[in-house]
Amino acid sequence: MKAIPVIRLGTRRSPLAMAQAHETRARLCAAHGWDESAVELVPVVAGGDKVQDRPLADVGGKALWTRELDAWLDEGRIDAAVHSLKDVETIRPEWITLAAILPRADRRDVLLGASSLRSIPQGATLGTSAPRRAAQMKNLRPDIETVLFRGNVATRMAKLQAGEADVTLLAAAGLERLGQESVGTPLPLETWLPAPSQGAIGIECRTKDSVTRGHLDALNDAPTRREVEAERALLEALGGSCHSPVGVLVENADEGLHMRAALFSADGAERVDGTIELTPGDVEAIRAFAADLLARATPGITPLFTGAS
Ligand SMILES: NCc1[nH]cc(CCC(=O)O)c1CC(=O)O
């Protein structure tokens, strides 16, 4: 009998991260006919989990969710790491490979505390720590003030319940993975743009580890990868990060990809929109599109991109 490998799969410890790790294990076992013991889940505490009282953009930003898992991967303590791709920097070290992107879940944001953007009472407060969510809301509803909401999904829902804000926004994908798919109102993609990579789970391993790469390759969803790579290429071309007030949506169309994006000023007063049809992998076209958005951006928007933030 062929020996069954054991893949040590690193994950953050939050309930959402653990749910994503369990999903990854289930998909690996299904794809290869392994039983559960072939994939060992290894929970690791990430830097971003230790800071709960400040916007992440103020904490020093970069690599907040990836640093510890990268170190464990580098030291050979894990073979692969599961991430919400939305939280992973666009530029990764050469020695790490994004070996699989799982089929994308619902990429919409969900509004909790009101049944639509219009029905939020005048002067209500939005609890969020995401610059994109804060700016996009203020763009549509300048009367709304934001208050800082950090912590995992359950913590943020508890803060809403406790009245620390009137409404909040959470990713549909995260709610679904936590069995909370029926709470709140998903916002239509026509009027509300999600973050780059939202709803996509990525699994990384060491570039040199061809055995693990081979195992993970079976999980990769090509249509999701085309979308997500284009979204991440735009974020990179803009000089943005997961803390940048940018919304983007790439969809597979009959021929190629359709991309829609918006940049916001931090206070939401200013906004620049664009759309483009793309051939998958055409990073040059994405760079030109990013340059066009930045050229049309106002002084309120520009400093938040091109690395100046
Ligand atoms: N920033 C935290 C984070 N990172 C990924 C998700 C949700 C899952 C996903 O988008 O794949 C969330 C929670 C949220 O934004 O509500």
UniProtKB/TrEMBL annotation:
<comment type="pathway">
    <text>Porphyrin-containing compound metabolism; protoporphyrin-IX biosynthesis; coproporphyrinogen-III from 5-aminolevulinate: step 2/4.</text>
</comment>
<dbReference type="InterPro" id="IPR036803">
    <property type="entry name" value="Porphobilinogen_deaminase_C_sf"/>
</dbReference>
<comment type="similarity">
    <text>Belongs to the HMBS family.</text>
</comment>
<feature type="domain" description="Porphobilinogen deaminase N-terminal">
    <location>
        <begin position="7"/>
        <end position="212"/>
    </location>
</feature>
<comment type="function">
    <text>Tetrapolymerization of the monopyrrole PBG into the hydroxymethylbilane pre-uroporphyrinogen in several discrete steps.</text>
</comment>
<dbReference type="InterPro" id="IPR022417">
    <property type="entry name" value="Porphobilin_deaminase_N"/>
</dbReference>
<dbReference type="Pfam" id="PF01379">
    <property type="entry name" value="Porphobil_deam"/>
</dbReference>
<dbReference type="GO" id="GO:0004418">
    <property type="term" value="F:hydroxymethylbilane synthase activity"/>
</dbReference>
<keyword id="KW-0627">Porphyrin biosynthesis</keyword>
<protein>
    <recommendedName>
        <fullName>Hydroxymethylbilane synthase</fullName>
        <ecNumber>2.5.1.61</ecNumber>
    </recommendedName>
</protein>
<feature type="domain" description="Porphobilinogen deaminase C-terminal">
    <location>
        <begin position="227"/>
        <end position="277"/>
    </location>
</feature>
<dbReference type="InterPro" id="IPR022418">
    <property type="entry name" value="Porphobilinogen_deaminase_C"/>
</dbReference>
<keyword id="KW-0808">Transferase</keyword>
<comment type="subunit">
    <text>Monomer.</text>
</comment>
<dbReference type="InterPro" id="IPR000860">
    <property type="entry name" value="HemC"/>
</dbReference>
<dbReference type="InterPro" id="IPR022419">
    <property type="entry name" value="Porphobilin_deaminase_cofac_BS"/>
</dbReference>
<dbReference type="Pfam" id="PF03900">
    <property type="entry name" value="Porphobil_deamC"/>
</dbReference>
